């Protein structure tokens, strides 16, 4: 009788169906707090990336190869907030996927596609910044708007082929037929066998991370050499007056690069590490931890407009014009965005 009583304490995602997942039973306050956090994160992501998109599209001074990449990245992160995050929020709060197997597969493919695409854009931006700092004399010839558009198109196609190919071919589930039968009804997560777990982590994180670390390290070294040469010339002409300014420039460059790499690694490394560890441990990862890793990766979509836009003073001026509705004034698209 005690066993029957203990079973009655559980609510199931699909009552009356065999192997149904157990529904989360948070209190009203906890559920409300979780929804408040998720909705706030979604709105911040939508608002931040929308401001970036409107700024680049409206203000002609921002029409540059770098901003073509930032525009596409903002669109990707906006789609993550609109298409992926709301459905993941209901799954997290209730512990159930209520939208059916077909939409689950579509959701997972969109999720994998957009998150992979976001990472590919970060590589493109790193390449663009590397050329601008390390090869400034040839930058305008090598990196044009057409080249930036081509980089964007290649990123979209490559990410789509990978994500939809893996999910719909079920290559990631090869060899997991016996284990998949133990997955409860009402769960909607992407699972990888050991081979595809390692391949996906290498393709989507470790390779991009290595490329970004290499490029940003070179950028930092070259930028430091540049400011040192400028500092030496200024010291010869003006004494030591420029020393503090040079140190400030070096410090700012180091801070910017450390934030770019730090946020990227912080948001993505735990997520892709579980792609490798979970298959090797029999998929026993705690569901709460798994949900936390998903939302940690979504956080990068909220951080990207801050990292890649707010560091540029011209974007701050654009945001101010949009928020204060000055964007609707005549000739606002041709206004000077230079900050004195």
UniProtKB/TrEMBL annotation:
Membrane topology: Multi-pass membrane protein
A cellular component term, taken from the record's GO annotations: plasma membrane
Cleaved signal peptide residues: none
Transmembrane segments: 32-56, 68-88, 108-127, 147-167, 195-216, 257-277, 292-311
GO molecular function: trace-amine receptor activity
SUPFAM superfamilies cross-referenced by the UniProt entry: Family A G protein-coupled receptor-like
Annotated G-protein coupled receptors family 1 profile domain residues: 48-308
Gene3D superfamilies on file: Rhodopsin 7-helix transmembrane proteins
Keywords per UniProt: Cell membrane, Disulfide bond, G-protein coupled receptor, Glycoprotein, Membrane, Receptor, Transducer, Transmembrane, Transmembrane helix
Compartments it resides in: Cell membrane
SMART domains xrefs: 7TM_GPCR_Srsx
Family: Belongs to the G-protein coupled receptor 1 family.
Name recorded for this polypeptide: Trace amine-associated receptor 13c-like
